[in-house]
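Changelog note: in this version the structure field was regenerated for every chain. One regenerated record is shown below for reference.
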Amino acid sequence: ALVGAGWICSGEAGGALGVGAGVDGCGGFAGWGEDARAGVSQMSVLVHPSGAVGFGRAVLESMALGLTVIASAVGGLREAIRDGDNGFLVQPGNVDELADRLRQVLRDPALRRRIGCSARATVEADFLIEDKIAALSEEWASVVTRSRVPDAVGT
């Protein structure tokens, strides 16, 4: 089943990605859910077909869990995802490209594992908050040190 709401669950997108997608076990849409942890624990792929996004926290969280991500090539997602290495990028609104990529990754467990491992490694190397806090703290300490002016006595 696919979980979600909005345009992807209806019309052309729904037909392309749902029952007609030609993917075993994809029997329809489960709709919107309140318990994100329960849903994520059952996922093998995160599809994030946004037309516009600043950065995409859900994408990074999914990558950190080792999921394969298929996302629109918009905003900060273009920085986080290296197409074919740690996830897949598709053109916004291109339903056929999205459906083709989804079929590809659902039919190839080895590809999902490889992409998921690379996704997790990317988050660990480039996006851990602790690393960002440490780097920012070092930068501020450097700025403070450089900006100190000796007092009038010359000490």
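Spot check on this record: The chain is about 50% helix and 10% strand. Confidence is low (pLDDT under 50) at residues 19-27.
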